[in-house]
Automatic annotation (TrEMBL):
PANTHER family: GLUCOKINASE, MURR_RPIR FAMILY TRANSCRIPTIONAL REGULATOR. The keyword Transcription regulation applies. Keywords: DNA-binding, Transcription, Transcription regulation. GO terms for biological process: carbohydrate derivative metabolic process. It comes from Christensenella minuta. This is SIS domain protein. Gene3D superfamilies: Glucose-6-phosphate isomerase like protein, domain 1 (3.40.50.10490), Winged helix-like DNA-binding domain superfamily/Winged helix DNA-binding domain (1.10.10.10). Residues 3-79 form the HTH rpiR-type domain. GO terms for molecular function: carbohydrate derivative binding; DNA binding; DNA-binding transcription factor activity. Residues 115-256 form the SIS domain.
Length: 256
């Protein structure tokens, strides 16, 4: 049996049906729960039959449900949070770092890319929210979008958000960058914006179930090992950048 769920399944994702892709997304975001679920429990959580779920497991290449959950447990256990420099070796971190970036790109389905392109075909005004390290990524995304001919803004301060509240329209896009997906300040900003307009919300967050992902119309997920020094978050945003660049380069291809 392969040692990593993502490596084992990545080549098979695009062959899944829409229903199976929804099951896959649920599994990836809720590995900590799925690892202990029976096939009936998971089927109920995904609103499908056990027959559909068993067919999904076989389509991913597993011999059965037990092998499926065994690999999830192994993957979930080996991707626990880490702190440097005392816990892991430099060699291990380099390998995990590269794998996280690669997996962030591998799990982007063609359906999600097509939906993203349909949204961006409208050439909406794009408001990008990001705090902490994600704020720097937001600036990078704004520059790319500007080069592609979009009007893009990166409000950060409360007064800038207040300005957005007066101008944002239903046909606009709100892009939210948050590694944890549980940033309360960002969630509050989204709630304020949704009360005055209902823009399309596109987010990039970590893979597990989170507040911002649940508030989004379209969510892309990244992988990273949580890293902090003296309580300050320095978790890599390279997975987030990889997702952005994949979407943007695909967008450039569409425009040619």
């Amino acid at each position: 049996m392969a040692e990593d769920f993502y490596d084992f399944t990545s080549a098979k994702i695009n062959s899944l049906s829409n229903t199976e892709k929804q099951i896959f997304n649920f599994v990836v975001r809720n590995m900590h729960l799925v690892k202990n679920m029976s096939i009936r429990d998971l089927a109920a959580a995904c609103f499908v039959s056990t027959t559909t779920l068993f067919r999904f497991v076989k389509k991913l290449g597993f011999s059965g449900y037990s092998e499926f959950t065994a690999m999830i447990r192994l993957t979930e256990r080996t991707s626990k949070n880490i702190t440097i420099p005392n816990v892991i070796s430099k060699k291990d971190y380099q390998e995990d770092y590269l794998k996280n970036v690669i997996e962030a790109v591998k799990v982007i389905s063609n359906d999600k890319i097509d939906l993203f392109n349909r949204i961006m075909d409208r050439y909406p005004v794009v408001y990008i929210l990001g705090l902490g390290l994600s704020a720097d990524v937001a600036q990078y995304l704004r520059r790319i979008l500007t080069v592609l001919g979009y009007h893009a803004e990166t409000p950060v301060e409360d007064y800038e958000i207040n300005s957005v509240l007066k101008r944002i329209k239903r046909e606009d896009v709100l892009m939210v960058l948050s590694y944890s997906g549980n940033n309360r300040k960002l969630a509050r900003y989204i709630e304020q914006i949704v009360t005055v307009a209902t823009p399309t919300i596109i987010s990039i967050t970590r893979a597990d179930n989170n507040i911002i992902q649940n508030m989004s119309d379209l969510n892309f997920y990244m992988f990273a090992d949580d890293i902090s020094i003296d309580g300050i978050d320095i978790t890599s945003r390279c997975g987030m950048i990889a997702v952005i660049e994949t979407l943007m380069y695909k967008r450039i291809t569409e425009l040619k």
